[in-house]
Every structure is written in C-alpha cells, then in structure tokens.
Write the structure tokens for this entry.
Amino acid sequence: MRILHVADTHLGHRRWNLPEREKDLYDVFDEVADIAIEEKVDLVLHAGDMFDKSDPPPQTYIRTYEILKKLRDKNIGFYVVAGNHEVPGTIKDSPLSFFEKIGLLKILSLRDVGREVLKDEYGRDLEIYGYSKKISRKFFEEKIPVKDRETIRIALIHELVCEPMRDYLGWTENMCRERELPMLSSSPNIEYFSYIALGDLHIRWENKIRGSIAVYPGSTEALNKGEAFDENYNFIDRYVYIIDVLDKEIRYRPRRLTKTRPWIYIEAKDHRDAIMKIQSLSNKKFVKPPILVIHILRREGSLERERLIKELNDLVDKNVIFKIDSISYAEEERPVSYSIKEGAEGFSLDKVLTEVFGDREIAELIRDFIDEKIDEKTLMNRLREDKDFLDKLHKIIRETRL
Ligand SMILES: [Mn+2]
C-alpha cells in the first residue's frame, strides 16, 4: 500500500489581494493530486490546514472540487484531520464538511479521535488514527487500546510538537512546556505507531523517535518570509511524503513540489547594488516569477530609494518578479513595508495605521483621534504624559521622514 502525506495547503490564502497569489496555492495542490496519481498511491493523508479559513470564497470550493475529483476518479482515498484554520465555529460549518458530504474526502477527526481500519494487499489491517487540532492533546495524554502490537498504525495529527523547535531553534524541554508544546517522545502512544503524519509546522522536518518515524512535510507554499528561508537565506523547498507500507517495514521519502512560487532574499550594500542584483534575476530561470525580500546595508537618501522602487515596479510589470514582500535596512529592526502597487485587500484603517506606525498602541491612539473619541488636546496630553509614546513617535518620524 502506498500513501501520500501532505499538510498545510491553506487553500484560499490570498496575500496582497493578488488573485495570482491565491491561484498559486491551487496550482500546487493540483500538483499534489497529479503526484498522487503518478505515484499510484492508494490514499492521500492530509494533516490539516487544508483550507486557510473556515469560510473560504466560492472559487476555493470550485478549484478544490476539481482537484479532489481527479483523485476520486482514480479511486484514491482522501483523509483529513481539521487544523486550527478549519475548525467550525458554533454557527459556521467547516468547509471540510461540505467536501465530506459530497463524498470527496473523509474527515478522520474534527471533534473526536478518529480511527479507520484498512486492509493492505497482504490482507493485514492498517490502522489510521486521526487527531484534529482541537483534540490533539489526546495523542499525548490518552493511551489508545491496543490488542495487536504487530498491526501497522499511522497517526495523522495537526499539532506543533516540541522536537522540531528543539532542532531548529534550540528550545529546551522547559521552553516547550511553558509554551504548552507537547513532546512526541513522551506520548504514551508513540511506540504503537510506525509513522506519525504531522501538520502545522510549515517547514519540513523528519526524525525517528523511539522507533517511529515522525514527519512534518511543511506547507506547500511559503505563506510569509518567516517560513520562506533557511538560516543561509536560501529558499526552503516544499515537499510531500510518499509512504510505502511493505511486508515488514515502512519506507518513506520526500518528493519535492515543483510548482511552488520561489522567494528570493537579496542582500545589497546600497540601493545601486540592489538594483544590479535584482536586474540580474531576469537572466535566471524560475518556475514562476519570485517574491523578493530585500535587505540593504546602507541607508541613503529618498532619491536612491525612489530609483529602486521605480526599477522594482518595472520588473514587476515585466513579470520578472512577482512581488516585493519587504525592503529593510541594516540599521533598523523593523522592516519598512513596501506599499506601492498594494491592492485594497482587507483595507482597514487599523491595519494601515498599525503598519505605518509599526506600533499597536500608537495606532490605537491615532485611531481614537480620527474617530473623534478623543480631541487634539487629549491626544497631546496623552503623548506628553507618556514619555514612551513620545519616544516611539519621534523614532517613527525619524525613520519614515514623515
Ligand atoms: Mn498551517
């Protein structure tokens, strides 16, 4: 029996209000389905956050329907556990329930632990346990009833566990405990499972823990710059895992996704150097025009910055680059967000104010002033009373040259 393990497809995610960005996520999910068909898998296991939110727009339903139908036409099963992004509210239903109702997938776990027994080609039982984000604690706290220790078991879990944080960020067990991250190695169930198919962490991670294989395939797209780059600022490739349940063992391998949109990190001495480095991208071949994160070591005048912005806009128009995520300068901790050519997505005054001022408290104060909840005198008094406010405001004015 062959299984494909995928997670965090975040269908419906739409950054910068760009329809192409929304399409990116469907494209790569479509590639996942094509891989499942090409690899002749029997089953797809989705470890959660299939959808970006619990109320996706109509086009998300349409594209998802088309892709899941390709799998059903090939008799490939599709099991999913609900992630934090698709847990239904009290009134709202989960989009997962719609696809289950029309028979295109099976929700293995929403509010309860799920268990499904399949027969493999040797006539043996293969047990699949599901733990949605809502009840994932049970994997770490409640022992499952086990009659036959030989049965091959796979767990599908949406939860962030401690081990990758220890490996990637050097967290100690105590730090995990403070943040309430469970440890796989202390689960009473780990030894009953051959493969733990995880979702939630957007960066690929795999390890062997007390004899079981634990894998996060990672998200199928980098949703923000924090999950786009490794410690050397190289783009982190995205993967699904192919699992073979053989006679006596489980074999697994990552398979790289080729349709993911790349992110490129550009570090430049100054604006001129940045323009040169970015122009040279037009000679490179990318699957799709990349998203850029730019870091400039020396801050110069606004004229140089304008030249850079003009050059960037030209390259966006020529489709050499897709989007500038951000431009930051070495002497600043806070990246200056790139707002030119920004669509009107989720235009909310609060969001804009927080972006511009880079500080929630100040943004709220200004908001109150705009809404006429406080008058000019009160605003000035608040600023005068609070030295922190005043310092922050000074810093903002210096940085943005308002
Ligand atoms: Mn996620």
User: Anything to note?
Assistant: The mean pLDDT is 89. The chain has twelve helices and 16 strands.
